[in-house]
Specification:
The protein has nine helices and ten strands. It has a five-stranded parallel β-sheet, sandwiched between helices. A five-stranded antiparallel β-sheet has the order 7-6-10-9-8.
């Protein structure tokens, strides 16, 4: 359940190249009780700001010089893995509304601003965002509990950024802590039994070249010297040129 106090604490970013519009929207939002409002007149800064702050709502002007709102939304899609952009677009052009919705925006407000409309649409979008986040957290808790019971962990690797993510269960199986060991191929390989490492690497190479999945068993050695047997399944997603984009898999003890 989302309560009013949660909505008013939501992180909001206002993006408009006109400082007068920024000031007006900030005044409206702060006057309504929102206490975490920030802004920028530089559209090229939006993606990095969102990556750092994970805003619950971005009020985004569409018509800006050098980089318009549509280009900003394309960048945000690379950050929001599920494609759920927290974007409420600002436009004075009715023809842009449909294109904005197709580009990932969830709603829009029109210029000149109407106080009641702005506050209503902002509140509705934030409430939906928080409800979705709460549901996601509950689903993650259920998933973590199921993985713990089954002794099954999962991982994901983004080839473009080199970013790897491990579930908590992988750490438990390996017998290491998240604080001391960031998730990486190097960390994992350092724990693979020396007699199994070459085979595992060959399987990885084959799956990226043949665009298939691999299914193999190997051993790992925990920090205390205990040997565990792993069953690992992995598959890749490729772009239209046949290059690997995303790898994901499961590890079972």
């Amino acid at each position: 359940m989302v309560v009013s106090s949660d909505i008013l604490k939501a992180g909001i970013l206002v993006v408009d190249d006109q400082q007068a519009n920024v000031a007006l929207l900030e005044q409206m939002l702060r006057g309504a009780g929102y206490d975490s409002v920030s802004s920028t007149t530089d559209p090229s800064a939006v993606c990095e700001l969102h990556r750092k702050n994970r805003y619950d709502l971005i009020l985004l002007d569409l018509q800006m010089p050098n980089m318009d709102g549509f280009q900003v939304m394309e960048g945000l899609k690379q950050i929001e893995a599920a494609g759920q952009l927290p974007v409420l677009v600002i436009t004075a052009q009715p023809a842009h509304k449909l294109r904005a919705l197709k580009s990932g925006a969830k709603d829009f407000i029109s210029k000149p601003f109407d106080l009641v409309e702005v506050l209503l649409r902002v509140r509705n979008m934030i409430e939906l965002r928080l409800l979705h986040r709460d549901e996601t957290i509950q689903n993650l808790k259920r998933l973590e509990n199921s993985q713990r019971i089954a002794g099954l962990g999962d991982w994901e690797y983004d080839f473009a950024s080199g970013r790897m993510v491990w579930s908590d269960e992988i750490y438990r199986i390996l017998g290491i802590s998240r604080k001391e060991f960031p998730p990486s191929v190097l960390t994992f390989d350092s724990m693979v039994h020396p007699d199994d490492l070459a085979c595992l690497r060959q399987e990885r190479k084959a799956v990226t070249e043949a665009q298939s999945r691999f299914n193999c068993e190997h051993r790992i050695i925990r920090p205390g010297g205990e040997v565990r047997h792993f069953h690992q399944i992995a598959e890749m997603i490729f772009d239209d040129r046949g290059r690997p984009v995303l790898g994901s898999g499961t590890v079972q003890d």
